[in-house]
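Chapter summary example: a protein plus glutamic acid.
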Amino acid sequence: MPAGRYAPSPTGTLHLGNLRTAIVAWLAARATGRTFLLRIEDLDRVRSGAEAGQLADLAAVGLDWDGEPVRQSERTARYEEAVAALRAAHGADAVYECFCSRKDIAAASSAPQTGDPADGDARGTGAPLRPPGFYPGTCRGLTEAERAARRAVRPAALRIDAARVAGLPAGGTPTATAGDVLHGEVTGLVDDLVLRRNDGAWAYNLAVVVDDLAQGVDQVVRGDDLLDSAPRQRWLAAALCAARGEPAPQTTYLHVPLVLNAEGRRLAKRDGAVTLEDLAAQDPAWTPERVRDRLLESLGLPAGPLAAAAPAFDPAALPRDPWVFTGL
Ligand code: GLU
């Protein structure tokens, strides 16, 4: 059964922006007869107690979900299996060790890349732009002796050799396109993205792709701060499916415009009463139901129980601009 999902990171309390996106994810799944799943993205920066608080707040604004939420921290065998599948299909070097620091990458990426259609000179030509932090391939093709020397100094991250996996000449740059309900076709360059970080944590992009495939997710709803990740995730999902000999799903994306504070920056806890708990503490009249109604209105939807909003839900009619929050 095709599924939609909401995938919070348990780094703290959900704020209005998170709750609003979660409501859209629920409506999008329910309106299309999909299963709705919750996935806890707890590979990183976990705050004790945050998961339970997030689930309680999601339930309080009216979300329900199918089955138990899954936790990424319990799924590491699947991420290892994905790396093994890519290596089995394309050779051991299809996933290679990288010893670069962020500083190394910034320095290498800012060096002129003459003749490379992927660099900033492509601006205005309609070509996909090189995203910030684009990895220039410094550690691709290190010899085993060079790797051994670097391993003694710094633990390695693992990166995918995108050109090799895409069947392009060495150093080539694949592009990929994701279809988004609000943003249209989004095309991006695919660099040698990190699959496992050098602190041993599995990388966000790999975990999302592996889990969405394993969970039958073909509808991805999340904040539009992650729009840039969509083409690379599409590409990785297709690569993984091909390596396993499986068909790749046709995934629909819906990147929801963010909630901004009065200064035009992304809403954050420091912007005052922006969580259910803080709102209720400020004014007991702000029950979870009233907050839900206000969030529905901000989405151009009728106030009331979510199940009542689902039949008329049209994702294409959602506001395309951020919601500037200056108080409820
Ligand atoms: N865990 C991410 C977040 O809380 C969302 C990732 C995703 O939906 O792909 O922003």
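Key point: The first strand starts at residue 3 and ends at 6.
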